[in-house]
């Protein structure tokens, strides 16, 4: 498996040429964005980079805290280089360290950077409570509402104290700064909803929505208000917004009980699948939605040499090259960097403009295409795929080589400059290939030396 990953990464560096142009594709121009309400308006895909400090598990806690601060500062430095933002969350003990260090301490300095970047500092917790100075054991009865309340009170309280130490005077009301909540407890969704209502926290950190990956191998594309009966279903009366994105960029493994591949090349392919769906809504002038992409992570993931530290910078560079700050021919922005708070605020604005409308719902509890809210042909062709290389193409045409879930070579391509023909014989050899439209699902044969490419994205395969 490690060999395959290295082989795919090496291929991604090879500039593969396709006809009729051998010039490297250049980004589309970015005219002024199209205003909301225009025929083909679609909000950009908002890319979130979440970083939250998990509980400290043994060891030299002050040394771990110092390393986490260094790693988080590295992360913000990288994001600053790309015009991206951090969404910062922390457990109560991290806040305790910040308070001990005072306004001039490194923790307070980090929180100031995080707030200036993403606009929020939010509480994140597992099942811990504060039993004493730097004593944060797990609650003895995680299903007991009293212990769950203790967990919430301790973590939120110490996060608020850290905010007050770092941001003095407060630039805005405290509740607007700690406006996101991430929590492993309670396990009961009805109790969770009640706690969110009682704390008046408007946004829930991404995570529970990752269960969608088990059904379709990608993440939910839109914020929504989750039902307490089914976290993937919708209830417009829910008092908070579920934010959505993937787990740690650069890793593959079990997270939230689901095996998920979010390594660099898998994340690129997942963005391409989301973009195909976003572009379809733009092409058809369908009612607009808010779109999310991105990943969560922890300061412990960004030690020198760790896979997430190696994966994040090239992913941001790739997104910058093809999508972030780029525009469709009419000026509609494709993607932009955002934060959990900014996405939440954008969703509230969307809700105000679309009263009573659904953003996302999936009431099933298994893979069920009858409820799948996006393009089925695109999902059938691209789910579980991995990016292999960006292909050079004529101006206005985009083409990417991928490895499908079945390990076959495929090419994803589309044109925003009218019909053209791509010579893909260097990839597929001489002969006939199949091109399938990802919107219509229709298939046709074509000569590999002259594959027709138009406005509908297609997957080309042997």
Brief description of this entry?
With 462 residues, the protein is of the alpha/beta class. The chain is 34% helix and 21% strand.
Low-pLDDT segments, ≥5 res: 1-29
Overall pLDDT score: 92
- Radius of gyration (CA) equals 23 Å
Q: What is the straight-line distance between the termini? A: 25 Å
How many strands?
A: 21
What is the molecular shape?
globular
Number of alpha- plus pi-helical segments: 13
Structural class: alpha/beta
Helix residue percentage: 25-40%
Report the portion of residues in β strands. 15-25%
Main beta sheet, described?
9 strands, parallel
Textual characterization of the structure:
The structure is a single chain. This protein is of the alpha/beta class and 462 residues long. Helices cover 34% and strands 21% of the residues. The chain is built from 13 helices and 21 strands. It has helices at 2-11, 61-81, 92-101, 106-118, 145-166, 174-177, 189-199, 213-216, 264-284, 307-322, 340-353, 376-382, 425-428; strands at residues 45-53, 86-90, 121-125, 180-183, 203-204, 226-227, 230-234, 241-242, 246-248, 252-255, 258-261, 291-296, 335-338, 386-391, 397-403, 409-415, 420-422, 432-437, 443-447, 451-453, 458-461. The strands form 5 sheets. Strands 1, 2, 3, 4, 5, 8, 9, 12 and 13 form a 9-stranded parallel beta sheet that branches. Strands 14-15-16-21-18-19 form a 6-stranded antiparallel beta sheet. Strands 6-7 form a two-stranded antiparallel ribbon. Helix 7 (189-199) links the parallel strand 4 (180-183) and strand 5 (203-204). Helix 2 packs parallel to helix 4 (106-118), helix 3 packs parallel to helix 5 (145-166) and helix 4 (106-118) packs across helix 5. The two termini are 25 Å apart.
């Amino acid at each position: 498996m490690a060999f395959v990953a290295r082989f795919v990464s090496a291929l991604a560096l090879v500039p593969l040429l396709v006809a009729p142009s051998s010039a490297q594709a250049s980004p589309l121009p970015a005219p002024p964005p199209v205003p909301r309400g225009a025929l083909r308006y679609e909000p950009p895909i908002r890319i979130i980079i979440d970083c939250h400090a998990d509980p400290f598990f043994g060891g030299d806690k002050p040394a771990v805290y110092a390393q986490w601060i260094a790693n988080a500062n590295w992360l913000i430095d990288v994001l600053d280089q790309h015009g991206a933002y951090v969404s910062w969350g922390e457990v109560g003990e991290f806040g305790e360290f910040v308070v001990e260090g005072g306004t001039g301490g490194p923790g307070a300095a980090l929180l100031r950077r995080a707030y200036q970047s993403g606009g929020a500092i939010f509480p994140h917790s597992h099942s811990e409570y504060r039993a004493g100075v730097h004593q944060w054991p797990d609650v003895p009865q995680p299903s007991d509402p009293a212990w769950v309340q203790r967990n919430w009170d301790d973590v939120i309280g110490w996060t608020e104290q850290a905010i007050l130490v770092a941001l003095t005077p407060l630039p805005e009301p405290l509740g607007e700064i700690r406006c996101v909540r991430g929590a492993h407890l309670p396990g009961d969704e009805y109790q969770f909803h009640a706690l969110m209502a009682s704390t008046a926290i408007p946004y829930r950190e991404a995570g529970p929505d990752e269960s969608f990956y088990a059904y379709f191998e990608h993440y939910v594309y839109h914020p929504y208000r989750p039902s307490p009966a089914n976290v993937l279903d919708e209830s417009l009366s829910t008092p908070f917004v579920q934010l959505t994105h993937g787990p740690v960029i650069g890793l593959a493994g079990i997270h939230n009980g689901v095996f998920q591949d979010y390594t660099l090349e898998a994340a690129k392919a997942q963005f391409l699948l989301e973009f195909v769906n976003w572009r379809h809504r733009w092409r058809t002038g369908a009612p607009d939605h808010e779109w999310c992409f991105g990943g969560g992570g922890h300061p412990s993931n960004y030690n020198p040499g760790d896979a997430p530290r190696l994966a994040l910078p090239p992913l941001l560079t790739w997104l910058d090259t093809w999508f972030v700050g780029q525009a469709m021919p009419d000026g509609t922005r494709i993607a932009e960097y955002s934060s959990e708070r900014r996405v939440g605020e954008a969703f509230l604005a969307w809700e105000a403009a679309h009263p009573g409308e659904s953003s996302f719902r999936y009431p099933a509890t298994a893979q069920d295409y009858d409820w799948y809210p996006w393009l089925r042909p695109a999902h059938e062709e691209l789910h579980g795929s991995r990016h292999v290389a960006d292909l050079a193409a004529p101006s206005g045409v985009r083409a990417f080589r991928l490895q499908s879930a079945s390990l076959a070579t495929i090419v994803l391509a589309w044109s925003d400059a009218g019909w053209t023909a791509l010579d893909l014989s260097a990839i597929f050899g001489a002969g006939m290939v199949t091109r399938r439209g990802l919107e219509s699902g229709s298939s046709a044969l074509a000569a590999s030396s002259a594959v027709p490419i138009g406005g509908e994205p297609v997957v080309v395969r042997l």
